[in-house]
Each structure stands twice: as structure tokens, then as C-alpha cells.
Amino acid sequence: MRKLVFSLVLILVTARVAAFEIEDHSTFGPKQAQEVLRILSTTDTAIFAPMIQSYLANNPDTFIDYTVASSTDVMGAVLQQSQPFDLVISSAMDLQTKLANDGYVQKHVSGVTGALPVWAKWNDMVFAFTQEPAAIVISEAAFQGLDMPRSREDLITAMRRNPERFRGRVGTYDVRQSGLGYLFATQESRVSETYWRLTEVMGSLGARLYCCSSQMIDDVASGELAVAYNVLGSYAFQRSDLDGIRIVLPSDFTTVMLRSVVVPKTAPSPELAGRFADHMLEQAHSNSGNFDIRRWLGPSDGAALSRINLGPGLLVYLDALKRRAFQKEWTNAILQ
Amino acid sequence: MRFLLVEDNAPLATAVVDRLSLDGHVVDHAADLETAKDFSATTSYDMILLDIMLPDGDGSHFLAHQRRKQSRTPIIVLTARSEVSDRISLLDLGADDYMVKPIDFAELEARCRAVMRRRGGDVSNQKVLGKLRFDSGTGVLNIRGLDIQLRTRELRLFEVFINAPGKIFSKSALVDRLFSYDDDVSENAIEVYVGRLRKHLSGSDVGIVTVRGLGYKLEQS
Amino acid sequence: MTQPVLSGSIQRRLLILLFCASALLAVLLYFVVQSVARQVAQQSQDNILAASALSVIDSARSVDGEVIVDLPYSALSMLDSVTDERVFYVVRFGEDVLTGYAELPRPPLSKARQTAYMSADFLGEEVRIASVSRSFSADLGRDRLEVSVAQTLSGQRQTLARSSRLALGVGAGFFALAAVLAWLTARATIRPLDRLAASVSRRGPTDLRPVTAAVPQEMAPLVTSLNGFMSRLEASLNRSEDFIAEAAHRVRTPLAVVRTKAEIIQRHIRKPENKAAMREMIGAIDESSRTAGQLLDHAMVSFRLDSLAQEKVDLASLVNDMVERLRPVAEIAEIDLVIVCSDPATIQGDGILLQNALRNLLDNAIKYSPADTRVEIRLTKGDTGISLQVCDEGRGFPKAGDADLAERFTRGDNVHGIVGSGLGLTIARDVATAHGGRLILENNAGGGACASLFFPSS
């Protein structure tokens, strides 16, 4: 049964699952510690390290093994169940939901999870600990003389009026390659028709397609791109080396992705995993400190926030037929 | 005194008639209510002794009949029953008194006297001898206008004498009349009461005389 | 009085039966409500699943001879709208799985039934599956397109828990209401019986009239036999009274004849020794007639004590009547009956019995008093109770307060030569006891006996 489901998943995550590619690996705490926690994550070590350290500050007798991999590899590792992990942290909320829905995740109920808002948890299995907006990253130099766009409409207008200024200098995710790009695209297309108009405009300007947010930020920073659309805001906000770029959360609606944590069924120390998850969630939802779940949402009053819902709706776009149809449509729009 | 005895039991009736006659009373006997009504209609009695259980009806009917006729003749009911309630209802019906059989004649005498006393003086009870007047109903002896109340035994002894003046009564006969049968008395007791009577009579012309060897008699000097 | 042997209570039995019936119905109601709720919950879940499956099948279209299913977002998200549910789906064309969870169990569909449901275990949890199908034309020819949608049951369980609580509440409420009604019913049913019991026990001891009040049909046999029993009892009581009266008559009349004749003979006898013999004979006759009288009195008293009348008795007038009644007898023996004190006093009880008790005390006092003495009667009412005292100046009781004196046929050692049966004090004591009082026997300091009937104030 598992294998069958697995094969189903294979179809959608393609052949890259087979090889579990470790991007980074680091350890925290004393090696001889009594408790060992293994975390598999899509989050860069540098970004997540403060969270681990804040946990170790109160629980010094814990050894934490932190492995970073791509979201598809993370999912594949969980499906394969060859290497046991206690916690799985991923930005791919659709894949996390899929793992939970298909029975690879165990439930975790505690006082902390009981206090979470409804949108931040699903089925006591998937728990959100960040809210990360999809942002428009703009090169201030490229927009000289133009009004700084505040919404997708503004951006469309600017691009239509100044096609020569933007031709070949517009970047966005390649939804055929990037799971996150696909998630943002599908959710935005669900919310508004503007997405398709914008995609067509970008396509007409010879948009450049990227696999990752950081590359898009780099290219905007270097002036190669005038604007990058649907860049993961959290990455952009954390880049302190950037001058002359503007990070815009669209005022019509800002798609917000939730980074989430699950405890796999195969977790060797589920109890410890639960405690660490509680610590993360407590930090994130306490509305203060470095891990405040609202820290990247900007000053917006939240009215424009379009939070992606955890739940079986996410499974819809993981459906092979659906995915094929969407990618076909998208390709038609962006490659003209 | 003249009695009407209403009693259906023949042996008892005969005995009572005989016994009352011994004391000098006149007794008519009626064995049923009809006869009793006839007698009482034609003759005036000093006292009616009425049995309750009669062949032709309850004695209470006779009582009611008498009271309807507004007869003033006292009635003493004789009963063999025990129920006190019966007696009470008889008194309510107008009987003057009642007695439970067997009849103690000393008691009957006492009750007759009590009834008469309650009814007030009756001329027929007055006896006169010389300067002495005696009311057997109230037991008052009047000598020269002076009233003397006799006590029970004195009274009964005096009654014996005055009913037959001049007749000699032996001591034992007097004992029979004065004392009830459960009293343990000697004949000397008679001398005591005779002595008391003599004292009461000292102011009159009547006295009790000793007849040596025979007894006593009442005599007018 | 003998306590009845109890075997349960009709009211309790009725209550228990009704309670049991109510409890049974309440439990039944609980299960019915729960099963209805279960069905409704199941139905609504099935409806949502069918709607979801239909929305999927409606999105199917044939493009270039290929079956394309454009899974609507709402098809799955609607299943998760209220409670978090795990959701599974599969789209089949004929026997081919187009997309979704190929292993999802397949509810039996037929041409006739375009929608089917089933419950099954899938991926470690119980799920409810709805399938819809329709015939569809594609390149491969015409075949059945079938969509199954499944959902876990946490929402349904929540609904069931809620409805279970509701059912429990309904059941408990029903039971409480039914219990109250049961109690009222039991009481209403028992009421005629209570009324009958009350009307019978309210009667005086001598009221043996038949019960004429209307009673329910079921009680008619009871009332009929009760009436029959009472009429037999009344007849029996009347016979007893008649018997006592008759016995008295039969005994006393011959005695009266004998005594009268004996007195006549006594008058005619001259010889002193014969006279003495005759006196003894008359004394013996008096004793037996007195004994007979007291025996009959005692029988009558016992008879009346069994069902003591409760009337208001004026003791002062009772004392006065009795003293006046006995005064002639006392006078014969030159004894003065003196009512020294006569407080107004009444008592609840049987006047005839009280009269009898007093007469026996007075009889005794007169009998045991020497001539020329007084018998004093005191009726006093104090804080502690009512005392009716008869004191003579005779030889006194052999030992003051000796309760044995009141035992039947017991007489003091010092009463030789006096006629008496010894029953008088027994009667007086029995009457006093029956009226909640007692008989007190004591000797005066200055000589003489005192017998008191004492009735404590309740």
C-alpha cells in the first residue's frame, strides 16, 4: 500500500526523489547528550540555527542533528522511511499536508498546539511556525522616473507602458521546476484572474525563469533584473547586503506561505520531537521576539493577506492531471 | 306502705310479696305490663317496684306510660342486668332509682326512704302517737314542736316500733331488721340504739319499755 | 392490637413497575435518538461526499480524445471546511486509474445505482467513501467514468458525540418526567384505598355500619367482604352483650328468690343457733351474687376495653351521680359519703367504664369501713393530671401500694368476714390503665385506705 502511494507521489515529484541529496548537515549540543533529535529541513541552517540554540539554552542535554535538503528530497526521505527523522520542517506546505493526509505523520497534541489559531494547524499533524509572503522585489534604479508599484495592477501598468525598459529584465519562478513557485502560482490563480494577465505580460516581455528566490534577489541586486515576481519575502527581508532594491508586498493581495513542522510516524523520539515542536510553536506564536510569526508580514493590517490554507485543498494541485493541465496553461502564458 | 310489684318471675314475686308483708307493707303483684297498668290506674300506690324484662314488653314502656299519665308514684326499677348504661337510660326515662337483683331489703328500704325524701314530705308518711309526730319519709321526729333528725339505724329501729306500738320485739328480731347480713353484730348493739332512742324520746309522752326476757315495746305513758 | 403482616406495598410496587417501564423507555429513546442522529450524520456526510464526487466528475471533459479531469479546488477543500479531515479520491475510467489513490476501496456501483457509499479502512483510519459514475466517451471508446471521494470520520464522530450527549439528555429528561408522572399515578391509584382506610379508621369503635362511600370497581370485593365482616362482627358483639345481660339475668333471679326466702325464714326462726346459720347462709348468697355481679362487670369491662369509646366525660358530675347513688347503701351502715373536693375535670374515654371503676372503689370503701365513719371523695385537677381519690377510715391496705391487690381474685389478708370477690380493684386498675392512667393504693397516715385513679395530663 505504502509503495503504491509512493509510486503515485513519484509521478509528481519526478525522478529526483530517488537520490536523497543532502545540501547541508550540522549538529548542535553535546555529542554525549542523552537525547538525540534528528531534524530534516528545507530551511537553511543559518536561518534556523537561532531556533535550535534557543531550545538548547533551556535543554542543554540534547544533541540535535540538523539536515537540510530540498523539499522534494525531504518528502522523498519521509516516504522512503530509510533514514528516521524526528521532525520534518518544510516550506512546501502542500507536500507536508500530503504526508499527513497519506498517513506518514503522527498526531501531536499538547497545551501549545491546543492554543494555536485554527489556520496554523491541520488535523493535529501539520503545524505552521512562520508566515512568509510572496513579494515583488524591485530594483529602484530600474524604476527611476516611474511610480513605485504597490499592486499587481500597478506592475502590469508599468510593464505595459514601458516594455523596452522591462524586456528581458523580469524574473519569476519556473513553476515546472520549483515546488514553491508552483504553490504560489496555483494559489494566486485561484484567488484572482490578475495572475494570468500578469503572467501573460511577463511572458510577452520575455520573462526569465528561476528555480530559487535567492538567485532572483541576487539578479535584482546586480541590476540584471528590474523586477522579480513572487520572491519569498522572508529571504529578501533577511538579506542585509542589498542596496537599491525595494521589497513590495502587493496591496491587492499578498499570498502568504506557511512553513510547517510535522512529526513523522517513524520518529525514533516522538516525545522529544513533540517538545521541540512545542518550543518552536511557542516561540513563533508568542507575538514577540525573533521568531514572531508576523515578522515578515510588514506593516500591513492583514486585510490584503491571502494565507494559503492548510488542508486537503492543497492536494488538488498535487494531482497529476491537474498539475499537468496547470503547467500546460502556464507554459502557454509565459512562453510566447 | 302500699307497693305495686311488677315482676314476671312467680317464685321471686311471691317471695318479695311475703318479705315486704313481714315488715307490715301491703303489696299488689302484677305479672305483666297490662295487669300493672290496670292496677296503677285503679289504685294509688306509695311505691312501684318494676322489673325490666317482662313477657309482654320492656319495663321502660311502663315507665313511659306512667310518666305520660303524669303519675307521681315513685318507681324503683329492679334489674338483673349488668349494663350500667341500661340503668342510666331507665333513670332518663323517669325511674326514681334502680336496684340490682337480688334485692337487699334493707337497701330497698333505704332507697325508698331516699326517694321519698327527694320527693318531699307526704302526708301519708306522717305518724302521730301522743305528743309525738314522726315523718318516716324524712326521718324527722317532732316532739312538742321540736325537730329531731334520726340517724339511719335509730330511724329504722324507731320505724319498727312506731309501725306496731305496743308490740314486743325480741332483740334478735331487731338485729335482723337493723343490720345487713355481712355485719358481724351482737345483740348488745340493739341496747345501744334503744338507749339512744330513749334519750331522744325523753321529752315526750312516748317511751321504749323493756319487757324482761322478751324484748322491747313502744308505749304511750 | 396485632400489627398486620406486611408484604410489600402496592404503591411501592406500582412505583417500581412504572419506574422500570420509564427507565426501559428512556433507554429505548436514547438508542432511537442516537441511531437517528447517527443516520442523519451519516446521511449528511454522504451528501457532502457525493457532492464532492459529483463536482469532480462534472469537471471531466474529453480533450483530443483524452479524458481530462480538472480537479476543482473546492472538491477537496469543502470536505475539510468544518473539521480537519483526511481526504482521498480516485478517478477511474473503466478499470484504469486516471488519477488519485488507486488503492482506495471501490463501493459497488451498477448501472442502476449511479451513487454508492461504503465504509472502509484506508491508510490506517476508518473512512467513508462515496462513488459516482457516469458513462463517458473518449478515444478508447465509451466506458464508465467513476469518481470516488473518501473522508475520515472525525467530524462525524464529533457530531455523534454531540448527539449522543443530546440523546442522553433526552433520555434522562424523559425518565425524570416519567418518574414524576409515575409517582403521581401511583399516588392517584392508591388514593381511593387511602380514603377507604381513613374513613374506616376515623369511625368510632362501635360504629359498625357498612361502608357506603363510592369506591372504584376493583375495590368492590374488598368493601363487600369488609361490610360482611363488619355485620358479622356487629352481630357477634351484640350476641356478646346479650349474653352478658342474659347470664346476669339467669344467675341473679334465682339468687334473688333464694335470698328473699332466706330472709323470710330468718324472721320466723326463733332458735339463736338456727338464726346464726341462716345469717351465714344469707351472707354466702350475698357473696356469690356480688361475685357474679363483679364477674359480669369484669366481662363487660373487658369487652368495652377492647374498643374503648372516646367521649368527653364530665368527671365531676360522674362522681356526684355515683355518690348520690350509693349514699342510701352507705347510710345503712351509717357511713357518710363526703365529696371533699370536686374540681371541674373532663377526660376522654368511656363514661360507663369510669363509672364502674369509681363504683368499685366506693363499694370497697363502704364495705371495709366501720359504722359512723366517713368516706371522703376528692376529685382534684393539678398540673400533673387528674386524681380521683376515695379514702376511708377503715383498716387500710395490708401493705400500701401493693399492686398484687389489684390482681384478679386477690384480697388483702385482713378482710376476713367481709363479702368481696377481689375483682373490684382489678376492674378499677384495668379501666385506669385503658385511659392512660393508673390505680394508686396507699394508706392514710391517720389510718384508713386511699385508692386513687390518676390520669396524667397528656
UniProtKB/TrEMBL annotation, chain B:
<protein>
    <submittedName>
        <fullName>Response regulator transcription factor</fullName>
    </submittedName>
</protein>
<dbReference type="InterPro" id="IPR011006">
    <property type="entry name" value="CheY-like_superfamily"/>
</dbReference>
<keyword id="KW-0238">DNA-binding</keyword>
<dbReference type="Pfam" id="PF00072">
    <property type="entry name" value="Response_reg"/>
</dbReference>
<dbReference type="InterPro" id="IPR039420">
    <property type="entry name" value="WalR-like"/>
</dbReference>
<feature type="modified residue" description="4-aspartylphosphate">
    <location>
        <position position="51"/>
    </location>
</feature>
<feature type="domain" description="Response regulatory">
    <location>
        <begin position="2"/>
        <end position="116"/>
    </location>
</feature>
<keyword id="KW-0804">Transcription</keyword>
<dbReference type="Pfam" id="PF00486">
    <property type="entry name" value="Trans_reg_C"/>
</dbReference>
<keyword id="KW-0597">Phosphoprotein</keyword>
<dbReference type="InterPro" id="IPR001789">
    <property type="entry name" value="Sig_transdc_resp-reg_receiver"/>
</dbReference>
<feature type="domain" description="OmpR/PhoB-type">
    <location>
        <begin position="124"/>
        <end position="220"/>
    </location>
</feature>
<dbReference type="InterPro" id="IPR036388">
    <property type="entry name" value="WH-like_DNA-bd_sf"/>
</dbReference>
<feature type="DNA-binding region" description="OmpR/PhoB-type">
    <location>
        <begin position="124"/>
        <end position="220"/>
    </location>
</feature>
<keyword id="KW-0805">Transcription regulation</keyword>
<dbReference type="InterPro" id="IPR001867">
    <property type="entry name" value="OmpR/PhoB-type_DNA-bd"/>
</dbReference>
